[in-house]
Design goal:
The complex is a heterodimer of chains A (341) and B (333). Chain A is an all-alpha fold. Helices cover 73% and strands 1% of the residues of chain A. Classes of the chains: A mainly alpha (341), B mainly alpha (333). Chain B: InterPro entries: ABC_transp_permease.
Amino acid sequence: MNVSSEPADLVSRQRYFGWVGRLSAAQRGVLIAMLIFAAMFIVYGWKQAAGLTPNMINTAANKGALLALVAMAQTLPVITRGLDLSVGATFVLANCLASTIVVGGPVATTFGIFGVLLLGLACGAVNGVIIVYGRLQPLIATLATSAAYFGIALAIRPQPGGLVNFELADFMTRSTFAVPHTVLLLLAVVVFIWIPYRRSVLGRAAFAIGSSEQAAYMSGIPINRAKMLAYTLSGLLASIGGILLTALTYSGAAKMSIANEYTLNSIGAVVIGGTSLFGGVGSAVGSIFGAFVMRTVGDLLIVFDINPVLQPLFVGVVLLVAVSLGSLRVLRIKNRLDIYR
Amino acid sequence: MSVSGVIARQFDRATLIAFGCVVVLLLIGAMVEPAFLSPKYLIQQLHTASFLGVVASGVMLVILLGHIDLSIPWTIGVGGMMATGATGFLGPEWGVTLAVPFGVLCGALIGTVNGLGVAYLRAPAMIFTLGMNAVAQGLMVYHTGGFAPQDRATEFMRELAVGHFIPGIPNPLLIWIVLGAAIVFMLNRSVLGRRIYAVGNQERSVFLSGVDTRKVILACFIFSGACAALTGVLLAGWANRSYQAMGDPYLLPTIAAIILGGTNVLGGRGKYVGTIAGVILITILQSMLSVVQPQRYFAQLGVDIPADTFRQVVFGVVIIGMLLIYGRQQLVR
C-alpha cells in the first residue's frame, strides 16, 4: 500500500538485497529496529559485570514494556496520518484510576481492570469523535484533550499514593522460565489486539487512509469508522499501559512530567520502529522494539559510567539520528522536484 | 490599496471571534469581581501576555510554513539559563554586558539546527524539533550539573522584564509591540512574508518559481528559536533567576494561542492580529481561572478537587469548543 513497492522497484530490490528486499517497508522497519535493539542489548549484557541474569532482563523488560504499550497506542493514529498527543495523559489517568479501583478481592480487581479499560476506550473515543466528527486537526485536538485528561487524573489522585491488588502486582513483576510476564503481556496485546486489527477491514482501511485519504474516500472506504477505531483502540492500549504502571509501582501519581515524557518518547519509539509519520506505513510490533531501543539507551549510559542525567541528551541524539537516516533518501532523489510536496 | 483596507484585512472571522471571547470573558469576570476592568489589572494581564506573545510570534511563522516547532519549552530554558550563566562563558565583564544577546543567540543556534534538519534534510519537523528539545534539555542538565553556574538575572535583564521604559507600558509589552509591528510589516509588505505564505500553501510551486524555499524555512526556524530564547531571557528577569523546566508550561498555550487566532495548522493561512487575540484570550482565561477559583464552590459541596483540575479541564474544553466554532477542516470529497 505504499508507493515504493511497485513491481519494477520490487524486482530491483530483490536483485540487490535478496530476501530482505522482498520485505515491505514496514517489515524492514521492524527488522532494523530489532537489529538495533539486539545490538544495544548485547553490548549492555556484555559490559554488565554480572552478565545477563534473569532478574536484570526482567527489570529491563518492565521498563521497556510500559513505553512499548504507549508507543503501540501512538502507532494506530500515526498510521492514519494522524497523531495522538494525549496517550501520555491517558496513560497517567489510567494509572491514577487503577490505583483507586484495582484493589480488593479477585472479583473487585477484575471489575476494576474492566473499569480502567473502559475509561481508556472512552478517552480514545472522545479523541476520535472530536477529530472525525468535529473535523479538528489531531495535533491540536489531542493536545487539548490531554490537558483535560490530566486534569481529571489530578482530581482522582491529588497526591501520589494509592494501592493495587497485590497478587496482580506480584504476578506482573515476576517472570516464568526467564520470560518476564510483561513480555507475555506485550505478546498477548500483539496477538489479541494488533494482529486482528491489522487484518480487519477497518485496520486495512487505516493504512489506506494514511496513504491517501482522498483515494481512500473515492474507493468507498469507511474513513470515519476506521479513524474512530484507531483512536479508540489507542486509548485502550494506553490504559493497559496505565494498569501495568500501577502494578509495577504499587501506586498512582498524576504528574505532568510523566505524561509528557511518555508522549514524547512514544513518538520517538514509533519512528525508530519504522512507522512513517506521514502515514500509511507502520507496525505496532516495530514500535515495541523502538520503545525498547529508547529505554536501552538509558541502561547503556549506566554500564558505560556516563552520568544518567544525560539520558535526555542521548535519547534526543538517537531521535535525531533516526530521522536523519530516514532523510538519506534526499540524496538519492534524481529530480529535485520530488523533494518538495 | 488604502491603509484602512490593509487594516481591515487583518481582522478575519477567527480574530473577531477571539477578540469577542476576550470581551465576554472580561465582562463575566467583571460581574464576579469589578476590579477586572480596572486599567491596572488589564495592563498587568498584557504584561503577562507579552511573554507568551513573544514566543508565539516565532512559532506562528513556523506554523504558517506548515511545520511546527516543539522545541520551544527547552529553547526558552536555554535562553534563560544561558543569559544568566553567560559570565561562565564570556567572563565576568562581558558576561554581564552581553548576557541578553548571548541567550538569544543560543536560542537562534537551536533554531538553526532545527531549520537545517527540516529544510535541508527534509526531516519531519515534529519529530526533529522534539529531538532537539530533548538535546537542549540534556545540554542544560549537563550545564547545571557540571559547575553550578550563575542563575541570577543581571540588573539589565531585571529592568527588561519589570521596568517601564515608557511610563505606563511595561518593557516586555513594549518589546512585544515592536516585535509584532515588525512581523505584521514583514508578513504583509515584504518578499519574505509573501514567500512564507506561499511555502505554506504549496512549497513545490514556490520552488518552481525559482525561490530557494529551504532558506525561507531556515530563516523562520532561526527566528522561532530566537523568539523563544528571548522569552526565556524575559522570564528569567521576571523571576530574577533561571531554572530548569522554566519553559515547560508554555508549549500548549503557545500552540493553542496561535490556532485559536485562526492560523491554519497545515500552514499558508493566518494573520498575526489573530495570534495577538489568541495570546490575550489564553492569558485572560488562565488568570480568570485562578481568580474565580471554582474549587471553592465544590469544596462547599463536600467534594475536594484540586484547583489545577479546573485549569486543565476548562483549558482543554475551551480550546476544543472554540475550534469547533471556527477551526474545522474541510470534508474530504
